[in-house]
Amino acid sequence: MFRSLHMKLVLILVLLIVSVMAVVGTFLINSVNTFYLDSFYEQAQSVFDKDMNRSLQDTAAESGAAGLKTVLTANKSRLGVDEYHRNFYILDGEGRYLEGSNETRAGSLTRTSNIVAAMAGKTGTRSSVADNVMDVAVPIDKDGNGSIDYIVYVSDDKNEISDLSWRFFQIVMQAMMFGLLAAILLSFLLSKTITTPIERITEGARSIADGNFDQQLGVQSSDEIGELTRSFNYMAGRLQGTIGEVQGERDKLNTLFLHMTDGVAAFTTAGRLIHMNPATESLLGVRMEDSLTFDELFADLDMLGSDETAMRSFLTSEITRRGRVLSVTLAPYGALDGEGGVIAVIHDITEQRRLDDARREFVANVSHELRTPLTNIRSYTETLLDAAGDIPLETEKQFLGVISGESERMARIVTDLLTLSRLDYGRMELRMTRFSLVDMLQKVAGAMKLTVENSGHELAVDTAAGLPKIVGDRERLEQVVVNILSNAVKYTPAGGHIRLSAREVDGRRVRISIEDDGVGIPKQDVPRLFERFYRVDKARSREAGGTGLGLAIAKEIVEQHEGKIALASEYGKGTTVTITLPTDLTPNGEEGPV
Q: Of 235, 237, 72, which Cα lies nearest the Cα of 154?
């Protein structure tokens, strides 16, 4: 009940009022007692002055106790003597009663400290709030010889003080009751003015804790509570902004982790998997639900060390999974005392390794292709130099012919390499014009006619009626068709048949096909035919004058035209090369001849 701030404030105010009323009541009652005591003794002191004492001494010498009673009775009003509370008595030197204003109460006299003091010759004016009576005892020496003959004693039984004190106590208690009622009401009101804003702030804090940051409390005052409310509103606004920024960054990271091609997996220091993005699942062939540990996922990872120094550095190693080469980079996060862990970033470097291998193979092939003609040129040149003048003219012409042929072969290789380089780096500008595909194919067939006939082959051209014009670089596309036809002529035995055809496909593309019934290509070699310098039979290819770059160049030119080139072959039966080109490209040059 008293745990709430509201009830605590009420209780504090009530206790404060009770304490104040108790202190005030005690102070008033003590003040009344002190006032009456001081009034009694001041009055007695004013009556029993030197003149009064001398008069009492003379009266006692002349008339004894009767005379003293007469004098005191005459001064009754000055002494405040009445029949109820205050009386005077005349005692002998031993404190025995002789005369008094109220004989009925003479038997109730007790020997007080003041009477004892008077018996010793001193005026007794000693008093205490705790005494039952307040009294004054004055010694009388009628002869002046130092002996005490009479004692004038005035006493009051304090009943009036007690009655008055009780009345004051009742008044204080009544005032305390009314004060308590007023204090309770006022304390409820006051505590409400304090606790209501605090309760609103508390409720707002709970709402913020539940995730509702749109909290703006009304400021009801300009005091400390109002300042606290304004501070709360400012805090809520700042917190909402901060949470929004954190949420935005978290969403960015989640989106990044979800869609990035590299795999990311997080582990605790104990090796427990706590996060894995879809790329990791795809690269490693596992699922988050498998609850795998670090050691289970990367059992084949080559770790450089597991001490603290190694864990605080970035470690990179490679693993092979599902036929792919993966680069794994490990980096610590957080603390190493159990609150942090390790993040593994997985990058697929299979293509990079393949390209590295292809580059090395390309360099080796180029070196080999250039070394062979260079060796022949050097050999024949040295022979001509060493035997100058001794070699028959016909032999010399034959040697020079070989040197010229090898030089042309090297020139073709260099030209093809430059062409591929321009295509790779986008430096070859294509002159895109609209031209007739039928006209281009007829022109190529006419140019190749003599070569085909000399090889003993038959070339047939089959173009569909109404074949649309296409947009492209006519010169480059002619080069592609010539290269493929040349291959068909080279690798088809004498008496073979070659067919060049063209058809429209779905109204937006055309398809060019070059078919032969030559030696064909083994199945395992077909996927690699468009690689640079790749040849099925290298000896026969060199003998036929090939460089191994024709199909690679053809593929690059076709793809520059947003087309596709495909090759199908059956060993011993023939080969078909298909080129598919779009017809709706945008021209950048003048329209070609029809």
A: 72
